[in-house]
């Protein structure tokens, strides 16, 4: 993901959510609708979430230090994980509490035109925000399905905004259905049921976000395409004859660590091996520009020793990646 694309989607979502949060809260004050109160808190939480994503992106740009020699790229993952916690606690749990209270103590919705009008406005605004997130995601999504994109994306911002906007749109529709049924039947319980459904929806989205960002925090390897490019760029067929084993790790969304043991010809001199390693590093960076940190260890490949190892991926002269 390009940083500019992610920032554009975040800013669009932030502007929409701030406007919607104010409108929803005004509608709650005039109508007493619990769906409106839950939705206003939801939009306010979403606004805070976008603020967290922007803050994480800013902090991730800091230069590496002796204490943090690989930089601060993972700050973006940390703040994305905080978003899932906020969405779960402030958004989901509050909505479930409000829905339960409204079902237990229902009351008729007053000034119905306020919640209905605000919900229609909010749906339109969220649609524009969601459209921006989709447009920016399509730039980097390639041939991946939307599910694959959310699961495999190394930059957390666009998947977070996409899921937030999707949840917001579905939540608004649920709120509109709940309010409409409460108005038609004269029974405020429907408003509470709509609020309860919004809470469940937000918690489900928060759990998905937490699971995906947890994987990024633990450390994910490069994507399959990038791994193949690195392999092809490393081996020159002359001095570097094969990759014995290789590991990759995302230090941040746009920074990759590559560590590999490479096989070199036994008769090569130290100068020739050093020159081959430098050339291989240049080829890797040209093929995969985000490969910023590269460690290549030369070795003599031993097929017999690799075959007898209990785990070829970790054995000297073994294979694997």
UniProtKB/TrEMBL annotation:
Q: Where in the cell is it found?
A: Membrane
- Membrane-spanning regions, if any? 6-30, 77-97, 112-134, 161-183, 189-211
**Which residue range or ranges hold the Cation efflux protein transmembrane domain?**
11-218
Which key words are in the record? Membrane, Transmembrane, Transmembrane helix, Transport
InterPro entries per UniProt: Cation_efflux, Cation_efflux_CTD_sf, Cation_efflux_TM, Cation_efflux_TMD_sf, SLC30A9
Q: What is its main location?
A: membrane
Q: Which spans of this chain does the record mark as coiled coil?
A: none
> What is the membrane topology listed in the Swiss-Prot or TrEMBL record?
Multi-pass membrane protein
PANTHER family linked to this entry: HUEL-CATION TRANSPORTER, PROTON-COUPLED ZINC ANTIPORTER SLC30A9, MITOCHONDRIAL
Q: What is this protein called?
A: Cation diffusion facilitator family transporter
